[in-house]
Amino acid sequence: MLKKRMDIEKQLYLFQIFGIVVTAALCLVLMISVTLSRNNRQQEEELLEECTTLTRAKNVVESLETGVGDEYLSNYLNIYIKSIANLDFVAVCDTENTCLYYPNRAFIGRTLRFGGEDRVLAGEGPYIVTVARTGYELEMAYAPVKNQAGDLLGYVILSVFHQSSAEDMQHLLYGYVAISFGTAFLGIFVSISIRRRTLRVLQGRRVEEYRRLADERNEVLDALDEAIVAINLKGEVIMMNKAFLKMLGCSERLLHYEGALKDIFPETALLHVLETGTAQYNISVHIHGGDYVASRIPVYENGRLIGAASISRNVTEVRRLAQELTETNQMVDTLRSFNHEFNNKLHVILGYLEQQDATEAKNFIINHVGAASVNIAKVTKEIESTGIAAIIIGKMVEAGSCGIKLELQADSYCKNLTRGVSFDCYVTVLGNLLQNAIDELRQSSAGVKEIGLGLFIDEQYTILTVTDTGRGMSGEVREHLFEKNFSTKGAQRGTGLFLVKELVEKYDGTVEVDTERGEGTSITVSFRCREEQETPCTE
Questions:
Q1: Contact of 88 with 103, CB cutoff 8 Å
Q2: Between residues 158 and 135, the one the model is more confident about
Q3: CA of 465: how far to CAs of 333, 521, 526, 529, in Å?
Q4: In CATH, what number does 318-528 get?
Q5: C-alpha pair distances (Å), 436 with each of 293, 303, 414, 457, 482
Q6: CA–CA distance from 326 to each of 319, 383, 386 (Å)?
Q7: What sign does the CA torsion over 176, 182, 185, 187 have?
Q8: Residue 311: pLDDT band with limits 50, 70, 90
Q9: Average pLDDT score, the chain
Q10: Local confidence band at 2 (pLDDT 50, 70, 90 cut-offs)
Q11: Which residues are paired to 154 by β-bridges?
């Protein structure tokens, strides 16, 4: 039976405790090593200093000069030994190694050799040597004693048993072990507290479970068609899905990008939401050739702003279908009007035939039905957009019913609508320009009533030109032509050209008017592709 695998939370918890224990042990060893090294060095320096001080003592020098260790010297050194901590013994010997002072009076007057005398008798010192004895070691400091002439009189020995150092180390070890255990227990207590707080923050879920939920959340977000991104107060990305990267045209390798959002999406408005704390809903944006509807909201926690998030929905296909539906409806309405007009013409032809006037019937067909059919065929051939073609055909039928000839210029074309300019804009501008020309010619008494329409539309440019043979305009009328509610055709008019002007300004286009009294008027509207700013995707 396989053992159940330990979850990541327990692994982290045990690893944390293991780290605390190991760290405490390493700190213990390091502290003991450093402290012992410093203590030993300090002890040796103090031992040498005390030994050198004794070589200059008057009692010591006089005893070595006379060669006799008197009672006064013994009392002085006995008191000295008691006043120095950890000092085991002091010995004073002459150049023959004869002992003039030793704590054990039985050794006074005898020749003593401890094992380090040769160097001091050779004039070297002070120095420290460690001498091995049965069951222990002696650490002894040797210092020469000289008279005022510089002659060697003897030497002084100060000794410390290593047992004393071992006892110090043992006491030190007990202290450090106690501190280390206390530190370890404190670390374990903190670790347990952190674990409990983590569980509260994760709402009772364990880390492994929370990680699984996070993975499932990311999979769900990546499966969505909506582009989602969230940032913190610094403007740094904390979460985004694949649809967002696709919207920017970036590689999926940036899926775990955590830098500034403006570095990969300079034109983002999410930073403005972060600054103002105000939400934005259903904002239309155009990014990399796609149309999106974006909603941006600030994110709060316990009443405190912590970031902002955005969700963008791609509506390019929806708008394309809506445009096609609008164009289809426009064409259906036009065909209905054309069918009504065609029935009227059939009735006229039928009337001529009933009167047995074949010649008039033939002329009517050639001048009215045939000409209209030719113009309509030309429109459907040159204008690929069914919506634009429907508008033109509808206006042709209306103009024809008023005895006005509306003709498409020979070099006109419409392959694709200009990028960034909506179909509704074309409907409003083209419809109002043609309607304005038809209304003008209705009121005109000119013998020739003609409207020329020039369309030059592709993805980069749009040029619409409508020319009529009407009465033309005075300078005063020209000056107020695009003002709201201004019209020469009576009350409740003056809206169409005002709407044209508004749309021209909205889409950064231009409008030009060329008119002459008694000759007619020509109005030209042009648009350019609204270039989108490229988004640099750093990988």
A1: no
A2: 158
A3: 24, 10, 9, 18
A4: 3.30.565.10
A5: 35, 57, 22, 21, 12
A6: 10, 16, 10
A7: negative
A8: very high
A9: 79
A10: very low
A11: 94, 145
Top mean-pLDDT range of 60-74, 228-242, 380-394: 228-242
Q: What angle do CA 286, 287, 293 make, to 5 degrees?
A: 55
How many CB atoms are closer than 10 A to CB 244? 26
Parallel, antiparallel or unpaired: strands 304-314 and 152-161: unpaired
Residue for token digits 């042990």? 25
Q: Are 291 and 314 in contact (CB under 8 A)?
A: yes
Q: For residue 140, with 0-12 CB atoms within 10 Å meaning exposed, 13-18 middle and 19 or more buried, which class applies?
A: buried
Closest of 268, 235, 194, 180 to residue 536, by C-alpha: 268
Give the pLDDT band of residue 285 (cuts 50, 70, 90). confident
Q: Is 229 helix (H, G, I), strand (E, B) or coil?
A: strand
Please measure the distance between the N-terminal and C-terminal CA atoms of the chain and give it in whole angstroms. 47
Instruction: Please count the residues of the chain.
Output: 539
> Which residue, among 251, 47, 71, 57, has the nearest Cα to 142 in the 3D structure?
47
Q: Which helix (H) or strand (E) holds 53?
A: helix 8-55
Interior angle at CA 397, CA 327 and CA 520, nearest 5? 105
Question: What's this model's pTM, rounded to 2 decimal places?
Answer: 0.43
Q: Name the percent of the chain lying above pLDDT 70.
A: 78
Q: What is the pLDDT of residue 156?
A: 92
Residues of the chain with CATH 3.30.565.10: 318-528
3-state secondary structure 114-138: CCCHHHHHCCCCCEEEEEEECCEEE
| Ranges of CATH 3.30.450.20 domains, the chain | 8-168, 224-314
The mean pLDDT value for 421-448 works out to: 84
Phi and psi for 296 in degrees, rounded to 5? -125, 130
Could you give the CA distance from residue 269 to residue 279 in angstroms, rounded to a whole number? 11
Which of 479, 490, 406 has the alpha carbon at shortest distance from 441?
A: 406
530 pLDDT band (50/70/90 cuts)?
A: low
Architecture of domain 224-314: 2-Layer Sandwich (3.30)
Give the residues across from 227 on adjacent strands.
312
Domain 8-168 CATH class label: alpha beta
Q: What is the mean pLDDT of residues 104-132?
A: 85
